[in-house]
Design goal:
The complex is a heterodimer. By secondary structure, chain A is an alpha/beta fold. Chain A folds into 2 domains: 179 residues, Rossmann fold, CATH 3.40.50; 128 residues, 3-Layer(aba) Sandwich (Rossmann fold). Helices cover 34% and strands 19% of the residues of chain A. Chain A has 12 helices and 14 strands. Chain A has a 7-stranded mixed sheet, sandwiched between helices. A 5-stranded mixed sheet of chain A has the order 9-11-10-13-14, with helices on both faces. The longest helix of chain A has 15 residues. The radius of gyration of chain A is 20 Å and the shape is globular. The relative contact order of chain A is 0.12. By secondary structure, chain B is α/β, with parallel strands linked by helices. Chain B has one domain: Rossmann fold (3-Layer(aba) Sandwich), CATH 3.40.50.970. In chain B, strands 2-1-3-4-8-7 form a 6-stranded parallel sheet, with helices on both faces. In chain B, strands 5-6 form a two-stranded antiparallel ribbon. Classes of the chains: A alpha/beta, B alpha/beta. At the A-B interface, helix 3, helix 4 and helix 5 of A face helix 5 and helix 6 of B.
Protein backbone atom coordinates (compact mmCIF):
# COMPACT_ATOMS: atom_id res chain seq x y z
CA UNK A 1 0.00 0.00 0.00
CA UNK A 2 1.39 3.43 -0.90
CA UNK A 3 2.40 5.69 1.97
CA UNK A 4 0.14 8.58 2.85
CA UNK A 5 0.87 11.76 0.88
CA UNK A 6 0.47 15.15 2.52
CA UNK A 7 1.92 18.61 1.84
CA UNK A 8 5.01 20.15 3.41
CA UNK A 9 2.78 22.64 5.28
CA UNK A 10 0.56 19.84 6.58
CA UNK A 11 3.64 17.89 7.63
CA UNK A 12 4.92 20.86 9.64
CA UNK A 13 1.53 21.27 11.26
CA UNK A 14 1.27 17.58 12.08
CA UNK A 15 4.76 17.59 13.63
CA UNK A 16 3.85 20.48 15.92
CA UNK A 17 0.49 18.96 16.82
CA UNK A 18 2.15 15.70 17.76
CA UNK A 19 4.91 17.45 19.72
CA UNK A 20 2.37 19.57 21.62
CA UNK A 21 0.74 16.27 22.59
CA UNK A 22 4.06 14.60 23.43
CA UNK A 23 5.44 17.48 25.50
CA UNK A 24 2.94 19.14 27.86
CA UNK A 25 5.54 21.89 28.41
CA UNK A 26 5.88 22.83 24.71
CA UNK A 27 4.69 26.20 23.47
CA UNK A 28 4.36 27.17 19.78
CA UNK A 29 4.41 30.94 19.55
CA UNK A 30 4.78 33.69 17.03
CA UNK A 31 2.89 36.39 15.23
CA UNK A 32 -0.10 34.81 13.51
CA UNK A 33 0.23 31.31 14.97
CA UNK A 34 -3.49 31.14 15.89
CA UNK A 35 -4.74 33.32 13.00
CA UNK A 36 -7.06 31.85 10.34
CA UNK A 37 -4.21 31.36 7.86
CA UNK A 38 -1.97 29.82 10.51
CA UNK A 39 1.40 30.78 9.02
CA UNK A 40 0.67 29.45 5.52
CA UNK A 41 -1.24 26.56 7.05
CA UNK A 42 1.66 25.30 9.15
CA UNK A 43 0.04 26.21 12.50
CA UNK A 44 -3.58 26.15 11.42
CA UNK A 45 -6.00 25.42 14.25
CA UNK A 46 -3.31 24.25 16.68
CA UNK A 47 -4.84 26.66 19.19
CA UNK A 48 -8.14 24.83 19.01
CA UNK A 49 -6.60 21.72 20.51
CA UNK A 50 -3.97 23.54 22.59
CA UNK A 51 -5.50 26.90 23.52
CA UNK A 52 -2.91 27.83 26.14
CA UNK A 53 0.13 26.63 24.17
CA UNK A 54 -0.33 27.92 20.60
CA UNK A 55 0.21 31.57 21.27
CA UNK A 56 0.06 34.77 19.30
CA UNK A 57 2.78 37.34 19.95
CA UNK A 58 3.20 41.04 19.32
CA UNK A 59 5.61 42.26 16.64
CA UNK A 60 8.52 42.39 19.06
CA UNK A 61 10.97 39.92 17.61
CA UNK A 62 13.75 40.50 20.12
CA UNK A 63 11.50 40.36 23.17
CA UNK A 64 9.75 37.31 21.76
CA UNK A 65 13.00 35.43 21.27
CA UNK A 66 14.11 36.55 24.74
CA UNK A 67 10.86 35.22 26.16
CA UNK A 68 11.58 31.94 24.38
CA UNK A 69 15.01 31.83 26.05
CA UNK A 70 13.55 32.62 29.46
CA UNK A 71 10.95 29.90 29.06
CA UNK A 72 13.56 27.39 27.91
CA UNK A 73 15.61 28.04 31.06
CA UNK A 74 12.65 27.39 33.32
CA UNK A 75 11.22 24.09 32.23
CA UNK A 76 9.45 24.86 28.96
CA UNK A 77 10.14 23.92 25.34
CA UNK A 78 9.51 26.55 22.73
CA UNK A 79 8.96 26.79 18.99
CA UNK A 80 9.21 30.45 17.97
CA UNK A 81 7.69 30.92 14.51
CA UNK A 82 8.67 33.64 12.01
CA UNK A 83 6.91 34.14 8.68
CA UNK A 84 10.13 35.26 7.00
CA UNK A 85 13.78 34.52 7.64
CA UNK A 86 14.57 38.21 7.26
CA UNK A 87 12.82 38.95 10.56
CA UNK A 88 15.35 36.81 12.44
CA UNK A 89 17.85 39.63 12.08
CA UNK A 90 15.66 41.71 14.38
CA UNK A 91 16.12 39.12 17.12
CA UNK A 92 19.65 38.05 16.19
CA UNK A 93 20.84 39.39 19.58
CA UNK A 94 18.71 36.86 21.42
CA UNK A 95 19.52 34.05 18.98
CA UNK A 96 23.24 34.56 18.52
CA UNK A 97 24.27 36.19 21.80
CA UNK A 98 21.90 34.32 24.08
CA UNK A 99 20.26 31.09 22.79
CA UNK A 100 23.38 29.77 21.10
CA UNK A 101 25.83 30.66 23.87
CA UNK A 102 23.86 30.44 27.09
CA UNK A 103 24.61 26.90 28.19
CA UNK A 104 28.29 26.94 27.23
CA UNK A 105 28.82 30.39 28.69
CA UNK A 106 27.46 29.25 32.06
CA UNK A 107 29.35 25.97 32.08
CA UNK A 108 26.20 23.91 31.80
CA UNK A 109 25.35 20.79 29.85
CA UNK A 110 21.62 21.26 30.39
CA UNK A 111 19.03 21.52 27.65
CA UNK A 112 18.12 24.83 26.03
CA UNK A 113 15.03 23.81 24.12
CA UNK A 114 14.40 26.70 21.74
CA UNK A 115 13.48 25.99 18.13
CA UNK A 116 13.19 28.89 15.71
CA UNK A 117 11.10 28.26 12.61
CA UNK A 118 11.43 30.66 9.70
CA UNK A 119 10.29 30.72 6.09
CA UNK A 120 12.36 31.66 3.05
CA UNK A 121 10.21 33.66 0.67
CA UNK A 122 10.43 33.47 -3.10
CA UNK A 123 8.47 34.67 -6.09
CA UNK A 124 5.59 37.10 -6.62
CA UNK A 125 7.98 39.98 -6.19
CA UNK A 126 8.92 39.25 -2.56
CA UNK A 127 11.90 41.51 -3.04
CA UNK A 128 15.09 42.08 -1.11
CA UNK A 129 13.71 41.90 2.43
CA UNK A 130 11.30 38.99 2.13
CA UNK A 131 13.37 36.37 0.37
CA UNK A 132 16.71 35.96 2.08
CA UNK A 133 18.11 32.55 2.79
CA UNK A 134 20.31 33.21 5.83
CA UNK A 135 21.34 29.70 6.85
CA UNK A 136 25.05 30.40 6.38
CA UNK A 137 24.87 33.38 8.69
CA UNK A 138 23.26 31.43 11.54
CA UNK A 139 25.17 28.19 10.87
CA UNK A 140 28.36 30.20 11.44
CA UNK A 141 27.56 30.33 15.16
CA UNK A 142 28.81 27.50 17.40
CA UNK A 143 26.12 26.10 19.66
CA UNK A 144 23.37 26.48 17.10
CA UNK A 145 22.03 23.96 14.59
CA UNK A 146 20.46 24.86 11.25
CA UNK A 147 18.36 22.46 9.18
CA UNK A 148 16.55 22.97 5.86
CA UNK A 149 13.93 20.38 4.92
CA UNK A 150 13.42 19.90 1.16
CA UNK A 151 10.60 17.36 1.37
CA UNK A 152 7.36 16.97 3.27
CA UNK A 153 8.79 13.95 5.04
CA UNK A 154 11.84 15.82 6.25
CA UNK A 155 9.75 18.85 7.21
CA UNK A 156 8.06 16.65 9.77
CA UNK A 157 11.05 14.54 10.78
CA UNK A 158 13.53 17.40 11.21
CA UNK A 159 11.06 19.55 13.15
CA UNK A 160 10.31 16.68 15.51
CA UNK A 161 14.02 16.06 15.98
CA UNK A 162 14.50 19.77 16.68
CA UNK A 163 11.90 19.70 19.46
CA UNK A 164 13.05 16.43 21.00
CA UNK A 165 16.75 17.33 20.92
CA UNK A 166 16.15 20.27 23.24
CA UNK A 167 19.02 22.38 21.94
CA UNK A 168 18.87 25.76 20.16
CA UNK A 169 18.27 25.38 16.46
CA UNK A 170 16.76 26.93 13.39
CA UNK A 171 14.44 25.09 11.01
CA UNK A 172 14.49 26.99 7.72
CA UNK A 173 11.55 26.24 5.50
CA UNK A 174 10.97 27.32 1.92
CA UNK A 175 7.75 29.01 0.88
CA UNK A 176 7.84 27.41 -2.58
CA UNK A 177 7.87 23.98 -0.98
CA UNK A 178 4.80 24.50 1.20
CA UNK A 179 2.44 23.05 -1.39
CA UNK A 180 4.50 20.05 -2.47
CA UNK A 181 3.28 16.64 -1.44
CA UNK A 182 5.35 13.75 -0.25
CA UNK A 183 5.21 10.53 1.68
CA UNK A 184 4.81 11.29 5.34
CA UNK A 185 4.21 8.53 7.87
CA UNK A 186 1.43 9.43 10.26
CA UNK A 187 3.18 8.45 13.46
CA UNK A 188 5.72 10.86 14.95
CA UNK A 189 9.28 10.16 13.84
CA UNK A 190 12.56 12.06 14.08
CA UNK A 191 15.00 12.62 11.24
CA UNK A 192 18.47 12.93 12.78
CA UNK A 193 20.48 16.10 12.27
CA UNK A 194 23.80 15.77 10.47
CA UNK A 195 22.65 13.09 8.03
CA UNK A 196 22.40 13.91 4.34
CA UNK A 197 19.77 12.23 2.16
CA UNK A 198 20.88 10.41 -0.98
CA UNK A 199 18.39 11.58 -3.61
CA UNK A 200 19.89 10.00 -6.72
CA UNK A 201 22.94 7.91 -7.48
CA UNK A 202 25.41 8.86 -10.19
CA UNK A 203 29.02 8.39 -11.26
CA UNK A 204 30.24 11.63 -12.80
CA UNK A 205 29.60 14.46 -10.37
CA UNK A 206 28.06 15.08 -6.95
CA UNK A 207 25.46 17.78 -6.52
CA UNK A 208 25.07 18.76 -2.86
CA UNK A 209 21.86 20.74 -2.73
CA UNK A 210 19.64 22.23 -0.05
CA UNK A 211 15.99 23.15 0.28
CA UNK A 212 14.38 24.23 -2.96
CA UNK A 213 17.58 23.59 -4.95
CA UNK A 214 17.19 19.84 -4.43
CA UNK A 215 14.28 19.77 -6.87
CA UNK A 216 16.31 21.84 -9.36
CA UNK A 217 19.20 19.40 -9.06
CA UNK A 218 16.82 16.53 -9.77
CA UNK A 219 15.65 18.24 -12.95
CA UNK A 220 19.27 18.92 -13.91
CA UNK A 221 20.09 15.25 -13.43
CA UNK A 222 17.33 14.34 -15.89
CA UNK A 223 18.77 16.71 -18.48
CA UNK A 224 22.30 15.45 -17.95
CA UNK A 225 21.25 11.80 -18.03
CA UNK A 226 20.16 12.25 -21.60
CA UNK A 227 23.68 13.41 -22.38
CA UNK A 228 25.26 10.45 -20.66
CA UNK A 229 26.26 12.34 -17.53
CA UNK A 230 25.23 10.76 -14.25
CA UNK A 231 24.72 13.30 -11.50
CA UNK A 232 24.63 12.03 -7.94
CA UNK A 233 22.47 14.18 -5.67
CA UNK A 234 22.75 14.62 -1.92
CA UNK A 235 20.21 16.69 -0.04
CA UNK A 236 22.38 18.11 2.75
CA UNK A 237 19.21 18.99 4.76
CA UNK A 238 21.31 19.67 7.86
CA UNK A 239 23.63 22.65 7.43
CA UNK A 240 25.10 22.42 10.91
CA UNK A 241 25.91 19.74 11.89
CA UNK A 242 26.99 18.83 8.36
CA UNK A 243 27.19 15.26 7.11
CA UNK A 244 30.82 15.53 6.05
CA UNK A 245 31.18 11.78 5.76
CA UNK A 246 28.43 11.33 3.17
CA UNK A 247 29.55 14.33 1.14
CA UNK A 248 33.19 13.25 1.13
CA UNK A 249 32.31 9.66 0.26
CA UNK A 250 30.28 10.79 -2.71
CA UNK A 251 32.89 13.26 -3.94
CA UNK A 252 35.59 10.61 -3.59
CA UNK A 253 33.49 8.41 -5.84
CA UNK A 254 32.57 10.98 -8.51
CA UNK A 255 35.59 13.31 -8.29
CA UNK A 256 33.48 16.42 -8.80
CA UNK A 257 31.33 18.70 -6.63
CA UNK A 258 28.53 21.02 -7.72
CA UNK A 259 27.33 22.91 -4.65
CA UNK A 260 23.73 24.09 -5.15
CA UNK A 261 22.62 26.69 -2.65
CA UNK A 262 19.55 28.89 -2.17
CA UNK A 263 21.75 31.80 -1.11
CA UNK A 264 24.81 33.76 -2.11
CA UNK A 265 28.20 32.19 -2.74
CA UNK A 266 30.45 34.57 -0.81
CA UNK A 267 31.17 33.22 2.69
CA UNK A 268 28.17 31.00 2.15
CA UNK A 269 27.20 27.34 2.54
CA UNK A 270 28.57 26.55 -0.90
CA UNK A 271 31.92 28.00 0.22
CA UNK A 272 31.85 25.67 3.22
CA UNK A 273 31.27 22.69 0.93
CA UNK A 274 34.14 23.79 -1.31
CA UNK A 275 36.40 24.16 1.72
CA UNK A 276 35.40 20.73 2.97
CA UNK A 277 36.38 18.91 -0.22
CA UNK A 278 39.52 21.03 -0.63
CA UNK A 279 40.63 20.10 2.90
CA UNK A 280 39.62 16.47 2.99
CA UNK A 281 39.16 15.14 -0.57
CA UNK A 282 41.65 17.24 -2.52
CA UNK A 283 43.40 14.33 -4.17
CA UNK A 284 40.11 12.75 -5.23
CA UNK A 285 38.95 15.79 -7.14
CA UNK A 286 39.10 15.47 -10.92
CA UNK A 287 37.51 18.83 -11.60
CA UNK A 288 37.29 22.25 -10.00
CA UNK A 289 34.40 22.82 -7.60
CA UNK A 290 31.35 24.55 -9.07
CA UNK A 291 29.04 26.69 -7.00
CA UNK A 292 25.49 27.40 -8.09
CA UNK A 293 24.27 30.30 -6.01
CA UNK A 294 22.50 33.64 -6.22
CA UNK A 295 24.16 36.58 -7.96
CA UNK A 296 25.81 38.88 -5.39
CA UNK A 297 23.00 41.41 -5.24
CA UNK A 298 19.80 41.75 -3.20
CA UNK A 299 16.75 40.03 -4.67
CA UNK A 300 15.03 42.19 -7.29
CA UNK A 301 11.24 42.40 -7.24
CA UNK A 302 10.15 42.74 -10.90
CA UNK A 303 9.18 39.41 -12.49
CA UNK A 304 11.68 39.62 -15.34
CA UNK A 305 14.57 40.45 -13.05
CA UNK A 306 13.43 37.89 -10.52
CA UNK A 307 13.34 35.12 -13.13
CA UNK A 308 16.87 36.02 -14.23
CA UNK A 309 18.06 36.20 -10.62
CA UNK A 310 17.42 32.65 -9.48
CA UNK A 311 19.63 29.83 -10.74
CA UNK A 312 17.73 26.71 -11.78
CA UNK A 313 18.18 23.24 -13.27
CA UNK A 314 19.69 24.68 -16.43
CA UNK A 315 22.30 26.52 -14.38
CA UNK A 316 23.18 23.35 -12.49
CA UNK A 317 23.41 21.35 -15.73
CA UNK A 318 25.57 24.01 -17.38
CA UNK A 319 27.93 24.22 -14.40
CA UNK A 320 28.21 20.43 -14.26
CA UNK A 321 29.12 20.29 -17.96
CA UNK A 322 31.58 23.14 -17.54
CA UNK A 323 33.62 21.49 -14.78
CA UNK A 324 33.50 18.11 -16.53
CA UNK A 325 34.69 19.71 -19.78
CA UNK A 326 31.66 18.56 -21.75
CA UNK A 327 29.84 20.45 -24.45
CA UNK A 328 26.27 21.34 -23.75
CA UNK A 329 23.28 20.16 -25.64
CA UNK A 330 19.97 21.90 -26.02
CA UNK A 331 17.75 21.07 -23.06
CA UNK A 332 15.46 18.25 -24.03
CA UNK A 333 13.08 18.69 -21.13
CA UNK A 334 11.09 21.81 -20.56
CA UNK A 335 12.04 23.89 -17.59
CA UNK A 336 9.26 25.55 -15.71
CA UNK A 337 10.20 29.14 -15.30
CA UNK A 338 9.43 31.29 -12.32
CA UNK A 339 6.57 33.15 -13.95
CA UNK A 340 4.54 30.19 -15.12
CA UNK A 341 4.47 28.56 -11.70
CA UNK A 342 1.36 29.04 -9.66
CA UNK A 343 2.52 31.51 -7.11
CA UNK A 344 1.31 32.74 -3.82
CA UNK A 345 2.18 35.60 -1.54
CA UNK B 1 14.83 41.56 58.96
CA UNK B 2 17.12 44.52 59.47
CA UNK B 3 19.98 42.21 60.32
CA UNK B 4 19.30 40.09 57.25
CA UNK B 5 19.39 43.15 55.00
CA UNK B 6 22.53 44.43 56.67
CA UNK B 7 24.25 41.06 56.31
CA UNK B 8 23.40 40.86 52.63
CA UNK B 9 24.72 44.37 51.97
CA UNK B 10 27.84 43.77 54.00
CA UNK B 11 28.55 40.52 52.12
CA UNK B 12 28.29 42.33 48.81
CA UNK B 13 30.54 45.16 49.94
CA UNK B 14 33.22 42.99 51.52
CA UNK B 15 33.27 40.59 48.59
CA UNK B 16 33.76 43.34 46.06
CA UNK B 17 36.29 45.20 48.17
CA UNK B 18 38.26 41.97 48.15
CA UNK B 19 37.90 41.76 44.38
CA UNK B 20 39.18 45.33 44.08
CA UNK B 21 42.10 44.59 46.40
CA UNK B 22 43.16 41.42 44.59
CA UNK B 23 42.46 42.61 41.08
CA UNK B 24 45.80 44.37 40.52
CA UNK B 25 47.55 40.99 40.91
CA UNK B 26 46.27 40.30 37.38
CA UNK B 27 45.17 36.81 38.30
CA UNK B 28 41.48 37.61 37.78
CA UNK B 29 41.55 37.97 34.03
CA UNK B 30 38.01 39.07 33.48
CA UNK B 31 36.59 42.59 33.20
CA UNK B 32 34.87 43.37 36.52
CA UNK B 33 32.01 45.85 36.77
CA UNK B 34 31.76 46.53 40.47
CA UNK B 35 28.52 47.11 42.33
CA UNK B 36 30.04 49.00 45.25
CA UNK B 37 27.64 51.75 46.30
CA UNK B 38 24.57 50.01 44.90
CA UNK B 39 24.26 47.18 47.44
CA UNK B 40 20.96 48.30 48.93
CA UNK B 41 19.16 47.65 45.65
CA UNK B 42 20.01 43.97 45.27
CA UNK B 43 19.78 43.31 49.02
CA UNK B 44 16.39 45.01 49.34
CA UNK B 45 14.89 43.24 46.32
CA UNK B 46 16.33 39.76 46.79
CA UNK B 47 15.30 39.64 50.46
CA UNK B 48 11.77 39.40 49.07
CA UNK B 49 12.51 36.54 46.68
CA UNK B 50 12.52 32.82 47.35
CA UNK B 51 14.97 30.40 45.80
CA UNK B 52 12.05 29.09 43.74
CA UNK B 53 11.67 32.56 42.22
CA UNK B 54 13.87 33.78 39.40
CA UNK B 55 16.43 36.56 39.15
CA UNK B 56 18.46 37.68 36.16
CA UNK B 57 21.10 40.35 35.92
CA UNK B 58 23.37 42.41 33.75
CA UNK B 59 27.13 42.77 33.28
CA UNK B 60 27.21 44.36 36.80
CA UNK B 61 25.75 41.51 38.77
CA UNK B 62 28.04 40.28 41.51
CA UNK B 63 25.58 42.06 43.80
CA UNK B 64 22.32 40.52 42.66
CA UNK B 65 23.99 37.09 42.41
CA UNK B 66 25.24 37.19 46.01
CA UNK B 67 22.10 38.84 47.35
CA UNK B 68 19.98 36.07 45.85
CA UNK B 69 22.19 33.52 47.62
CA UNK B 70 24.64 32.65 44.87
CA UNK B 71 27.74 30.84 46.13
CA UNK B 72 30.52 33.23 47.18
CA UNK B 73 33.19 30.61 46.62
CA UNK B 74 31.92 29.79 43.13
CA UNK B 75 31.91 33.50 42.28
CA UNK B 76 35.56 33.96 43.21
CA UNK B 77 36.52 30.73 41.46
CA UNK B 78 34.78 32.06 38.36
CA UNK B 79 36.68 35.33 38.55
CA UNK B 80 39.88 33.29 38.59
CA UNK B 81 38.68 31.28 35.54
CA UNK B 82 38.62 28.05 37.49
CA UNK B 83 36.72 24.89 36.65
CA UNK B 84 34.86 25.08 39.96
CA UNK B 85 33.59 28.55 39.14
CA UNK B 86 29.85 29.18 38.94
CA UNK B 87 30.14 29.04 35.14
CA UNK B 88 32.93 26.44 35.09
CA UNK B 89 35.44 29.12 34.16
CA UNK B 90 33.73 29.75 30.83
CA UNK B 91 31.86 32.89 31.79
CA UNK B 92 33.88 35.23 33.96
CA UNK B 93 32.62 38.19 35.94
CA UNK B 94 29.86 39.09 33.49
CA UNK B 95 28.30 35.63 33.69
CA UNK B 96 27.18 34.92 37.22
CA UNK B 97 24.80 31.98 37.61
CA UNK B 98 23.40 29.79 40.37
CA UNK B 99 20.23 28.04 39.30
CA UNK B 100 19.97 26.31 42.68
CA UNK B 101 18.84 29.64 44.14
CA UNK B 102 16.90 30.77 41.07
CA UNK B 103 19.64 33.04 39.77
CA UNK B 104 19.30 32.14 36.09
CA UNK B 105 22.17 34.17 34.72
CA UNK B 106 23.32 37.50 33.40
CA UNK B 107 24.11 39.01 30.04
CA UNK B 108 26.87 41.27 28.80
CA UNK B 109 24.43 42.62 26.21
CA UNK B 110 22.68 45.55 27.84
CA UNK B 111 19.02 44.70 28.32
CA UNK B 112 19.56 41.13 27.13
CA UNK B 113 18.00 39.44 30.14
CA UNK B 114 14.94 41.71 30.39
CA UNK B 115 12.82 39.67 27.96
CA UNK B 116 14.20 36.46 29.46
CA UNK B 117 12.71 37.48 32.83
CA UNK B 118 9.38 37.98 31.06
CA UNK B 119 9.77 34.48 29.60
CA UNK B 120 10.61 32.99 32.99
CA UNK B 121 7.53 34.68 34.48
CA UNK B 122 5.33 33.47 31.64
CA UNK B 123 6.74 29.99 32.05
CA UNK B 124 5.93 30.06 35.78
CA UNK B 125 2.36 31.02 34.92
CA UNK B 126 2.03 28.26 32.30
CA UNK B 127 3.43 25.66 34.68
CA UNK B 128 1.06 26.77 37.40
CA UNK B 129 3.63 27.94 39.95
CA UNK B 130 3.51 31.20 41.88
CA UNK B 131 7.12 32.11 41.09
CA UNK B 132 7.99 35.69 40.19
CA UNK B 133 10.89 36.84 38.04
CA UNK B 134 13.06 39.85 38.87
CA UNK B 135 15.35 41.44 36.35
CA UNK B 136 18.14 43.84 37.34
CA UNK B 137 19.34 46.33 34.74
CA UNK B 138 20.83 49.81 34.58
CA UNK B 139 19.48 53.14 33.44
CA UNK B 140 20.94 52.66 29.95
CA UNK B 141 19.05 49.42 29.38
CA UNK B 142 15.79 51.37 29.14
CA UNK B 143 17.22 52.94 25.99
CA UNK B 144 17.18 49.54 24.31
CA UNK B 145 14.04 48.80 22.31
CA UNK B 146 13.69 45.42 23.96
CA UNK B 147 12.96 47.09 27.30
CA UNK B 148 9.78 48.66 25.95
CA UNK B 149 8.90 45.48 24.05
CA UNK B 150 9.22 43.57 27.31
CA UNK B 151 7.03 46.02 29.24
CA UNK B 152 4.39 45.59 26.53
CA UNK B 153 4.39 41.81 26.79
CA UNK B 154 4.50 41.69 30.58
CA UNK B 155 1.60 44.11 30.83
CA UNK B 156 -0.40 42.36 28.11
CA UNK B 157 -0.36 39.07 30.00
CA UNK B 158 -0.15 40.55 33.52
CA UNK B 159 2.99 38.52 34.12
CA UNK B 160 4.71 38.31 37.52
CA UNK B 161 7.78 40.39 36.68
CA UNK B 162 9.78 42.91 38.70
CA UNK B 163 11.64 45.25 36.42
CA UNK B 164 14.37 46.61 38.69
CA UNK B 165 16.18 49.59 37.23
CA UNK B 166 19.40 50.39 39.06
CA UNK B 167 19.64 54.02 38.07
CA UNK B 168 23.27 54.90 38.82
CA UNK B 169 23.17 57.90 36.47
CA UNK B 170 25.87 56.68 34.09
CA UNK B 171 26.27 54.45 31.06
CA UNK B 172 30.02 53.78 31.13
CA UNK B 173 31.11 57.45 31.31
CA UNK B 174 28.05 59.05 29.72
CA UNK B 175 25.59 60.73 32.10
CA UNK B 176 21.83 60.67 31.53
CA UNK B 177 21.56 64.12 29.91
CA UNK B 178 22.96 63.22 26.45
CA UNK B 179 21.05 59.93 26.47
CA UNK B 180 17.50 60.60 27.63
CA UNK B 181 15.22 63.63 27.28
CA UNK B 182 14.52 65.59 30.44
CA UNK B 183 10.82 64.93 29.92
CA UNK B 184 11.50 61.21 30.42
CA UNK B 185 13.78 61.73 33.40
CA UNK B 186 11.65 59.53 35.61
CA UNK B 187 12.33 56.05 34.34
CA UNK B 188 9.63 54.70 36.67
CA UNK B 189 7.06 56.36 34.38
CA UNK B 190 8.15 54.36 31.31
CA UNK B 191 5.57 51.72 32.24
CA UNK B 192 2.65 54.14 32.43
CA UNK B 193 1.47 53.71 28.80
CA UNK B 194 1.12 50.01 29.56
CA UNK B 195 -0.57 50.48 32.92
CA UNK B 196 2.48 49.19 34.77
CA UNK B 197 2.86 50.84 38.16
CA UNK B 198 6.20 52.58 38.55
CA UNK B 199 7.85 53.32 41.85
CA UNK B 200 10.92 55.44 42.36
CA UNK B 201 12.80 54.89 45.59
CA UNK B 202 16.06 55.97 47.15
CA UNK B 203 18.16 53.04 46.06
CA UNK B 204 20.63 53.69 48.84
CA UNK B 205 17.92 53.21 51.47
CA UNK B 206 17.66 49.48 51.86
CA UNK B 207 14.44 49.69 53.87
CA UNK B 208 12.76 51.78 51.19
CA UNK B 209 13.88 49.34 48.47
CA UNK B 210 12.75 46.39 50.56
CA UNK B 211 9.30 47.86 51.16
CA UNK B 212 8.75 48.78 47.51
CA UNK B 213 9.93 45.37 46.35
CA UNK B 214 7.71 43.62 48.90
CA UNK B 215 4.67 45.38 47.46
CA UNK B 216 5.72 44.55 43.90
CA UNK B 217 6.39 40.89 44.68
CA UNK B 218 3.07 40.54 46.49
CA UNK B 219 1.24 42.05 43.51
CA UNK B 220 3.04 39.76 41.09
CA UNK B 221 2.32 36.65 43.13
CA UNK B 222 -1.35 37.52 43.31
CA UNK B 223 -1.50 37.67 39.52
CA UNK B 224 -1.84 41.45 39.41
CA UNK B 225 1.02 41.92 36.98
CA UNK B 226 4.42 43.55 36.69
CA UNK B 227 5.94 46.53 38.49
CA UNK B 228 8.72 48.84 37.39
CA UNK B 229 10.96 49.74 40.29
CA UNK B 230 13.41 52.58 39.75
CA UNK B 231 16.11 52.62 42.41
CA UNK B 232 18.14 55.83 42.48
CA UNK B 233 21.68 54.86 43.31
CA UNK B 234 25.28 55.67 42.50
CA UNK B 235 28.26 53.76 41.17
CA UNK B 236 31.32 54.47 43.29
CA UNK B 237 33.85 52.75 41.09
CA UNK B 238 34.53 53.24 37.40
CA UNK B 239 32.41 51.54 34.78
CA UNK B 240 34.90 48.69 34.69
CA UNK B 241 37.84 47.82 36.89
CA UNK B 242 38.63 48.21 40.59
CA UNK B 243 39.42 51.91 40.72
CA UNK B 244 37.53 55.16 41.03
CA UNK B 245 37.73 57.02 37.75
CA UNK B 246 37.58 60.72 38.56
CA UNK B 247 40.83 61.19 36.63
CA UNK B 248 38.87 60.65 33.41
CA UNK B 249 37.16 63.95 34.02
CA UNK B 250 33.57 62.97 33.28
CA UNK B 251 32.60 63.27 36.93
CA UNK B 252 34.27 65.09 39.78
CA UNK B 253 35.61 64.01 43.14
CA UNK B 254 33.12 66.47 44.60
CA UNK B 255 30.25 64.56 43.01
CA UNK B 256 31.67 61.25 44.18
CA UNK B 257 32.01 62.56 47.75
CA UNK B 258 28.42 63.79 47.93
Amino acid sequence: MPERQITYAEALREAQHQMLAEFPNLVVMGLGVPDPGGVFGSTKDLHKDFPTRALDLPLSEEANAGVANGMALTGMRVINVHQRVDFLLVCANQIVNHSAKWRYMFGSEAAMPVVYRAVIGRGWGQGAQHSQSLHSLFAHIPGFSVVMPATAGDAKGLLIQAVRAGQPCLVLEHRNLYGIKGEVPEKPYATPFGKARLVREGRHATAVAVSQMVAEAEKAAEILAKEGVELEILDARSIRPLDEEAILASVRKTGALVACDTSWAFCGFSAELAALVAEKAFRDLKAPVARVALPPIPTPSGPVLEAAYYPNALTIAAETRRILGRRGEAPSVSITNERSQRESW
Amino acid sequence: MHEDLYRRMLLLRLAEEKVAALYPQQEMRSPVHLYIGQEAVAAGVCANLKTTDYALGSHRSHGSYLAQGGSLKAMFAELYGRRDGCAAGRGGSMHMVDESVGFLGTSALVGGTIPMAVGAAWSARLRGTDAVAACFFGDAAVEEGVFTESLNLAALHRLPVLFVCENNLYATCTPLAPRQPAAAAEIRRRGEPFGIPGVRVDGNDVLAVHEAAATAVARARKGEGPTLLECMTYRWKGHVGPDADTHLGYRSQVELDL
